[in-house]
Write a structure and sequence with these properties.
By secondary structure, the protein is of the alpha/beta class. Helix content is about 35%, strand content about 20%.
Length: about 300
């Protein structure tokens, strides 16, 4: 059963028992926004019950930060007025394969879902950074965030100072790079610019605890960049990666070792293809988590 991880008068974060996966529900004067409803049927049903209890005639919007099956698994339980995702997610040619991942999971654990297993039908397709959508007095801003997947995005709810980041800046996961380390670094590097244009203080990742201060999510950004640079250094120099320090920081090595090894293999392929270089005389620097607005222009 999911738990309520965080709540204030307008934001409720439900966290699944599986992978500490977060579903964010936002209520404004004009709408109810549900981001990445997950995982188990009872968990999704509890989210749906809560949404129904607070909706009171408001529009219902669904946002999907990316197409990983754990983030779309609750789609069929909701009848939304509008669905938001990236253009790449909407047009993903692997839709059937993603649905099969859900069906495989449900078959493995004898799960029956009382709602259809469907790939989201996207009404509003985000195709570039800074796309905005306004519904009455509520304004949403969307930013492409490739790296974890090609079709990832983040959404900022303007007047709440809130960024919902998908599978970035988790406090329980290092970067899981399914698509591109180059794009992942680019996404992390533009976060301060996104902040300066939207001024959010709180950030909710797809897994783990919310970052409730600017200092917190900046520190997570620094840790993510440091991890990627350390992997690149290991690949470029042939020196073993310091996994001891990694598992001192992250608590689920039996599961996450597979993600780390996949990261190493992906970064090795990128290096062999010349997608990034390593110059020992001009090494990348990891930014200090300093206050924003001064150095992020």
């Amino acid at each position: 059963m999911s738990k309520i991880l965080y709540r204030d008068p307008q934001i409720t974060v439900f966290q699944s028992a599986i992978y500490q996966t977060n579903t964010t529900v936002v209520r404004t004067d004009d709408l109810v926004l549900v981001v990445d409803p997950a995982w188990l049927p009872d968990e999704v049903y509890a989210i749906r019950q809560y949404v129904d209890s607070i909706r009171e005639g408001r529009a219902l919007f669904l946002v999907f930060t990316h197409s990983d099956f754990d983030h779309i698994i609750g789609y069929g339980a909701f009848k939304a007025d509008k669905v938001f995702a990236t253009e790449l997610m909407a047009e993903n040619p692997a839709q059937n394969a993603i649905l099969e991942q859900i069906n495989d999971f449900d078959q493995q654990y004898y799960i029956h879902r009382p709602y259809p297993v469907e790939y989201p039908m996207v009404d509003f397709k985000v195709y570039r950074d800074g796309v905005q959508y306004r519904h009455e007095s509520t304004k949403l801003s969307f930013y492409l965030a490739p790296g974890h997947t090609a079709d990832s995005m983040m959404v900022v709810v303007w007047h709440l100072g809130l960024c919902i980041a998908g599978d970035y800046l988790s406090n329980i996961e290092f970067p899981i790079i399914q698509h591109s380390s180059v794009e992942y670094v680019n996404t992390l590097e533009k976060l301060p610019r996104i902040h300066d244009r939207n001024w959010f203080t709180r950030l909710i990742p797809g897994h783990g605890d919310p970052a409730l201060t600017i200092t917190d999510w900046l520190r997570r950004r620094t840790e993510s960049l440091a991890y990627i640079y350390a992997i690149r250094e290991s690949v470029a120099t042939g020196r073993p990666f310091d996994t001891h320090s990694l598992w001192e920081r992250y608590c689920f090595p039996r599961q996450q070792i597979k993600d780390h090894e996949a990261n190493l293999a992906l970064v090795q392929r990128e290096y062999e293809q010349g997608l990034w270089t390593w110059d020992p005389d001009n090494l990348p620097t990891v930014p200090e988590p300093v206050p924003l607005g001064e150095t992020s222009q």
